[in-house]
């Protein structure tokens, strides 16, 4: 098999070894051995090859490059990679997007489009995006489908983190300490210990502790800090020259006040129907009248339900709880009464055996993984005004002490009725109407305020929680050949299992508790049931069990057609089976006060988690399976020893999944299908000027079927599929005019758009731009629907009059909402469309969740059209063997969109990130001192956004890069 090593074997600046350590300069620059040693070996094709010879678009960062370019985590990694972006996202998730394809599917049953690996083994639910890089051999990023070689199928690409291995016969150690602004303290260390001639042990770790990036005006504290550590132990055993066994154990833990969501943005809707409008992302809070807790505790709903209006917390037509709240006009400043909590940990145990068998090699790899994450923070990052609650809370206290008034002097109160309200008083306002307000805690499953599990504060609290526990393992076997002739092969198989024992997303707020109590109490009282509330008192989307079983069989052949032309052909069969048990609850069934566990309630039989199955089910249980045959074909032509040209075709696949149950029920698909991609790529890898210049150029075209995209419906992430066409180009260069200078420049262009007619309703504009439509905020569940037809406004006005509600009203002219809006009840409106009295108005339709619009031609989310980066590094060598290495990096990320509906409100502005460092290296590279600054311009760079659902007020969560950081680091090695 043809193998060669180019002088500059790297497709980015990371391919240059030791950019920050001094080396003796001797002889002519272009003959300097330091050039010929700069060969990066990668395993992109499951064998050791020079990076430049691999006919795949792959970037590799060795340990020195990660250090020099200040690449500490995935957020930093994206900046210098062409057509790659990374962002955190909702529900403690993250999306690593390559060429417009990322983890846009959100949910327990979703697969990752970008496969994350450790030493070639696939990871599931990994928390590696929280940790920082330490003691690595390199990080490889492969762009494009990689199904025939790596783990499970990956449609966008692979990120492979390769850890440093123990070195036989050599004792070594290294330590580094860093101090920076925000009182940041970071320490890293490594020790390598030989244990005889055939065995060696390596231990490494890091610790990071810093103050928060974000100021909390509520209590003048700093939040969004970090307190984390990780340790890794590795053992290498080489009993013979043909046998190598590697064992690795890794543990990561974080426990701090990290903000899962940096900031919320909203163009405030004064009508309260939408909460936030559709034109801008302002520093403002949603109109709380649009939220579920408000509509369910409103005068208007209570009146319709026959509940005394004096118990209502407010009116949807009156001032809302955020009307007087001043949202800080700064990404790094918030005002929250709930201090965020963030816990994550991960355990990895890996074993890898390489056994040489004559001209072949057998590779066996197994990995076991445990991950958990638990994050809580203020749901709205704001302070609700409680002054409007005074009348309702006083009335509640009065009812709790006396009962329901009758208006009859001889018997002023309904006998025994106080028992229905006293438990509410005790749970929510234990110190009286003017005391603290208590909200259900979410740290004990379904147990909330009415089970004695609450958090109390002077202001109404609203917070959420995202948590998951996952266990996974996989085993892989690969047999590859290294024959002297023109033919070689690789064949392998993998089996993987992953199980989620618990996944929950909670939303808690005082209004939800209050509504579940009052609505439940009057339901129980009217039915003669014991005093009860509607459980659960908090919103909870809960997966009690998810299991994935996956196996794949794959193989490749490599044929040297001539000395300069090589053909690669690969094929893979993959089979994925998924099963899930889940439910969504809020105010779903009566539960007597004092009952310890809601799901032991005598009334739980009225709850149905699965409308599609006869009878009442406590869980929705589903199973799906997917399989596919994929492959690739590559022609690789060596124009000269330093110039390669290749053309490839790949077929990629990612399995589909199961959408969670919704509350209320909307017409969304239970399942979503697999992704399939036909990828064409042409590339040229070149070394010019005797190694002084490297120029790599890649062009690609993707035909995508069934791209999985997520949107929020009824407070739950629902996944749909669309088709897309994607094409782009990538230019990567490295210039070394002399040993002392290194300049890297990368530029990429990406055109990623929806293909064909794809019809979906826009959660920001359920009216779909129809000026005749009326957008309805449903008082019974907080969702939105749209009433359409030429007579829609008159129809809604007439029905609402009978409900005691106001008619439609126009949205502000700058809100990009052509329709009118109103509060009402969608099911009532739907029933009335058949009323003959409204026939003169013409055809009327009620559409949930709204009018569908065509997405054809829209740009895919998280797909910047342009990216560019440049890095300049100079090495000044001194006669005493020391050196000084200044470096400057600048990265530009162009315009992109946060979701597929595009528009100005979803536009993410271009941003620039600049880093600089200067390093003084001691003689023989035994020590160094480095000064550094990251994000020199202190840019508030937004990397992604997520739109919440109608019952939360349609506000936008945004995710940002870190602010400016600077400090000094010292290190030594032995």
What does this structure look like?
With about 950 residues, this protein is mainly beta. It contains ten helices and 53 strands. The strands form twelve sheets. The protein has a 22-stranded antiparallel barrel. A five-stranded mixed sheet has the order 3-8-9-6-7. Mean pLDDT is about 90; it is low at about 1-40.
Mean pLDDT: 90
Gyration radius from CA atoms, angstroms? 30 Å
Number of helices: 10
Low-confidence stretches: 1-39
Number of strands: 53
Give the SSE map.
Layout: H1 33-36, E1 41-42, E2 49-50, E3 58-62, H2 63-68, H3 74-77, E4 84-89, E5 93-98, E6 114-118, E7 121-122, E8 136-143, E9 157-163, E10 172-180, E11 184-194, E12 199-210, E13 214-216, E14 221-223, E15 226-240, E16 243-256, E17 263-265, H4 292-296, H5 299-305, E18 333-334, E19 341-357, E20 360-378, H6 390-402, H7 422-428, E21 437-440, E22 454-457, E23 462-481, E24 487-509, H8 510-527, E25 532-535, E26 539-560, E27 565-585, E28 589-592, E29 620-640, E30 643-654, E31 657-658, E32 671-672, E33 675-688, E34 693-713, E35 716-738, E36 741-754, E37 759-761, E38 774-778, E39 784-788, H9 792-803, E40 809-810, E41 820-824, H10 826-832, E42 845-847, E43 852-854, E44 866-874, E45 876-877, E46 883-893, E47 896-897, E48 907-908, E49 911-921, E50 927-934, E51 942-947, E52 956-960, E53 965-973
Parallel strand pairs: 6-9, 13-18, 38-41
Antiparallel strand pairs: 1-2, 3-8, 4-5, 6-7, 8-9, 10-11, 10-53, 11-12, 12-15, 13-14, 15-16, 16-19, 17-52, 19-20, 20-23, 21-22, 23-24, 24-26, 25-28, 26-27, 27-29, 29-30, 30-33, 31-32, 33-34, 34-35, 35-36, 36-44, 37-43, 38-39, 39-42, 40-41, 44-46, 45-46, 46-49, 47-48, 49-50, 50-53, 51-52
Helix pairs in contact: 6-7
């Amino acid at each position: 098999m043809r193998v060669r090593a180019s002088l500059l074997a790297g497709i980015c600046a990371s391919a240059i070894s030791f950019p920050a350590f001094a080396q003796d300069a001797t002889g002519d620059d272009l003959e300097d051995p330091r050039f010929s040693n700069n060969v990066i070996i990668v395993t992109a094709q499951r064998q050791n090859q020079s990076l430049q010879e691999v006919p795949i678009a792959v970037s590799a960062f060795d340990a020195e490059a990660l250090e020099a370019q200040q690449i500490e985590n995935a957020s930093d990694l994206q900046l210098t990679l062409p057509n790659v972006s990374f962002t955190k996202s909702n529900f403690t998730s993250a999306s690593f997007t390559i060429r417009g394809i990322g983890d846009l599917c959100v949910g327990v049953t979703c697969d990752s489009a970008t496969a994350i690996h450790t030493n070639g083994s696939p990871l599931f639910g990994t928390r590696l995006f929280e940790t920082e890089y330490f003691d690595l051999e390199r990080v490889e990023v492969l762009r494009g489908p990689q199904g025939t070689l790596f783990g499970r199928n990956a449609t966008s690409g692979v990120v492979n983190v390769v850890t440093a291995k123990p070195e036989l016969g050599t004792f070594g150690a290294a330590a580094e300490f860093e101090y920076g602004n925000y009182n940041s303290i970071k320490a890293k260390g490594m020790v390598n210990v030989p244990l005889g001639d055939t065995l060696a042990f390596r231990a490494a770790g890091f610790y990071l502790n810093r103050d928060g990036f974000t100021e909390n005006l509520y209590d003048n504290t700093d939040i969004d800090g970090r307190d984390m550590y990780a340790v890794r132990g590795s053992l290498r055993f080489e009993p013979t020259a043909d046998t190598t066994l590697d064992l690795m154990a890794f543990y990561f833990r974080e426990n701090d006040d990290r903000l899962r969501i940096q900031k919320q943005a909203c163009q405030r809707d004064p009508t309260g129907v939408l909460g936030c409008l559709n034109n801008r992302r302002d520093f403002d809070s949603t109109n709380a009248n649009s939220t579920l807790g408000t509509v369910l505790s409103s005068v208007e709903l209570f009146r319709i339900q026959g509940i005394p209006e004096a118990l209502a917390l407010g009116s949807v037509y009156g001032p809302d709880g955020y009307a007087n709240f001043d949202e800080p006009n700064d990404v790094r400043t918030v005002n929250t009464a709930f201090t965020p909590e963030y816990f994550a940990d991960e355990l990895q145990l890996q074993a890898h055996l390489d056994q040489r068998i004559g001209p072949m090699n057998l590779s066996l790899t197994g990995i076991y993984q445990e991950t958990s994450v638990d994050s809580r923070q203020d749901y709205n990052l704001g302070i609700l005004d409680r002054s409007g609650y005074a009348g309702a809370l006083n009335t509640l206290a009065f009812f709790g002490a006396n009962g329901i008034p009758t208006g009859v002097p001889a018997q002023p109160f309904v006998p025994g009725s106080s028992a229905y309200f006293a438990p509410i008083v005790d749970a929510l306002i234990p110190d009286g109407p003017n005391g603290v307000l208590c909200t259900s805690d979410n740290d004990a499953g379904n147990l909330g305020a009415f089970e004695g599990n609450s958090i109390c504060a002077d202001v109404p609290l609203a917070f959420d929680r995202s948590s998951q526990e996952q266990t996974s393992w996989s085993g892989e076997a690969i047999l590859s050949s290294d024959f002297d002739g023109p033919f070689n092969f690789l064949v392998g198989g993998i089996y993987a299992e992953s199980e989620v024992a618990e996944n929950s997303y909670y939303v808690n707020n005082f209004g939800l508790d209050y509504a579940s109590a009052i609505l439940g109490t009057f339901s129980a009282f009217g039915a003669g049931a014991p005093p009860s509330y509607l459980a659960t008192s908090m919103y909870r989307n809960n997966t009690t069990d998810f299991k994935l079983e996956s196996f794949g069989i794959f193989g490749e052949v490599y044929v040297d057609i001539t000395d300069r032309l090589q053909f690669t052909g690969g094929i893979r069969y993959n089979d994925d089976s998924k099963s899930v048990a889940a439910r969504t609850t809020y105010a779903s069934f009566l539960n007597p006060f004092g009952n310890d566990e809601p799901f032991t309630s005598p009334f739980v039989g009225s709850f149905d988690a699965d409308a599609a199955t006869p009878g009442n089910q406590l869980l929705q249980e589903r199973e799906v399976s997917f399989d596919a045959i994929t492959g690739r074909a590559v022609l690789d032509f060596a124009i000269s020893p330093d110039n390669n040209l290749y053309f490839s075709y790949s077929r990629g696949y990612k399995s589909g999944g199961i959408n969670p149950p919704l509350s209320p029920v909307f017409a969304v698909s239970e399942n979503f299908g697999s992704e399939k991609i036909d990828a064409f790529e042409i590339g040229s890898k070149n070394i010019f000027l005797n190694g002084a210049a490297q120029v790599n150029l890649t062009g690609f075209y993707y035909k995508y079927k069934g791209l999985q995209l997520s949107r929020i419906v009824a407070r739950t992430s629902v996944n749909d599929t669309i088709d897309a066409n994607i094409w782009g180009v990538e230019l990567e260069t490295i210039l070394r005019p002399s040993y002392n200078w290194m300049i890297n420049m990368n530029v990429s262009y990406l055109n990623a758009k929806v293909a064909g007619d794809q019809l979906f309703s826009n959660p920001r504009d359920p009216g779909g731009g129809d000026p005749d439509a009326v957008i309805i905020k449903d008082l019974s569940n907080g969702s939105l629907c749209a009433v359409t037809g030429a007579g829609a406004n008159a129809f809604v006005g007439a029905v609402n009059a009978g409900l005691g509600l106001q008619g439609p009203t126009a949205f502000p002219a700058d809100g990009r909402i052509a329709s009118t809006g109103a509060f009402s009840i969608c099911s009532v409106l739907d029933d009335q469309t058949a009323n003959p009295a409204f026939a003169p108005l013409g055809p009327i339709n009620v559409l949930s969740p709204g009018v569908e619009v065509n997405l054809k031609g829209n740009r895919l989310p998280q797909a910047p059209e342009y990216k560019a980066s440049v890095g300049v590094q100079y090495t000044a060598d001194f006669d005493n063997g020391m050196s000084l290495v200044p470096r400057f990096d600048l990265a530009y990320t162009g315009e992109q969109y946060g979701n597929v509906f595009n528009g100005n409100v979803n536009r993410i502005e271009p941003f620039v990130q600049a880093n600089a460092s200067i390093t003084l290296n001691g003689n023989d590279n035994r020590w160094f001192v480095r000064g550094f600054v990251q994000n020199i311009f202190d840019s508030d760079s937004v990397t992604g956004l997520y739109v919440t659902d109608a019952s939360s007020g349609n506000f936008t969560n945004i995710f940002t890069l870190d602010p400016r950081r600077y400090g000094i680091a010292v290190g030594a090695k032995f």
